[in-house]
Amino acid sequence: MAGDSDLIVNVELLVSSESSLKTIKNEFEGLDKRKDSMEKEWGSGQIADAMSDFVDNWEKYREELLGSIETVQKLVTSTIDSFTGLDKELADSTRKGKK
Predict the structure, then answer these.
(1) Count of structural domains within the chain
(2) What number is the average pLDDT over the span 32-55?
(3) What domain range includes position 93?
(4) Residues 78, 17: contact at Cβ < 8 Å?
(5) Does residue 26 lie within any of the structural domains?
(6) CA–CA separation, 74 and 33 (whole Å)
(7) Confidence band (pLDDT; 50, 70, 90) for 52?
(8) For residue 5, is it within any domain?
């Protein structure tokens, strides 16, 4: 029957993607905590100032990326829910039709 379908959904890939997006989101959310611990590694002077400026600038873009990651994660979750729900409905109606 799957060969007759025009639409094939790899739910395992979607679930894996959802998990990966959660992991990436968690990593991005924790990045701001690392700045303070890394400052001593930068030394002093111009390099430390440049790194600090970079981290501060990165904060803005990190927030934008977090928003995008969260949006994609919600879309993937919604897609999983929709297709698994539809698959269940079709299976249930097929079973009822065979009785």
Answers:
(1) 1
(2) 77
(3) 10-98
(4) no
(5) yes
(6) 25
(7) confident
(8) no
